[in-house]
Amino acid sequence: MKRPLRFALMLALAGSLASPALADRDRDRHRHPHHPPHEHHSRHDHKRHEARRYCPSGTIQRGLDCLHRDSIRRDARRYPRVGDVLRPADYRRISDPRAYALEPGGNWNYYRDDDRIYQVDSSTRKVMAVLQLLQAFSN
């Protein structure tokens, strides 16, 4: 009786040790032979990942920057603000400030574009004040 019991125990032990090795018969093959591996990827996927590599979702890459869609619309026409340095070559200088009811003289000059007047410090070229043309005529 000892021999059949010993044989049964060895057979059970061998079966339990071999079962993990036999469980994955297709370990070297793809599980579905009619679908080759990576078929669900497009040949252009690397370009999609390349574009998203630098900018998080919800932003658009403009040059080297990632900008939110709202900021692109908002900065479509950017006007100089108080404290910005004005490039005088881009604006027309007002030679007679009294024609616009502005205070003449001082250490500043006036420049204008289509609908704004800029009071600019003559030494640093920084914008000291921004006036709408309607505000200049309403005084």
From TrEMBL:
Residues annotated as signal peptide: 1-23
Region ranges (Disordered): 25-51
Chain intervals with Basic residues compositional bias: 28-51
Keywords: Signal
Domain of life: Bacteria
Entry protein name: Regulator RcnB of Ni and Co efflux
